[in-house]
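CATEGORY: protein folding

GOAL: derive structure tokens
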Amino acid sequence: WETLTLSEQLANVGSEVDRAIRAWEAERTDRFERALERALELFDLTVRDERWRGHRRREILRAREEFCRLFFDDDPPEGSARRLSRYFLQFGVLARRRGSGTADPAPACG
């Protein structure tokens, strides 16, 4: 995990976030629970990465908070799932570009 860039880590987190959202919407409890657990595990691994201090770590924790709020808050904000998906999609696009050799600046978190 520590060999991945921030955009690659967050792209992986985003994949699990999207899986959890889709499973929740489809009422697939088994898939939802696995995706939820994996997303939280990846959030926690990313937060523990010593390279991401200060504003980056705060941004990751804020995204984790919004993810949890989506499923555990009695009244999550309208459009939360869509906004989370869009947020993480940006990291997937950036990670893919970097993987193809395109040099991009580090993502601005926060």
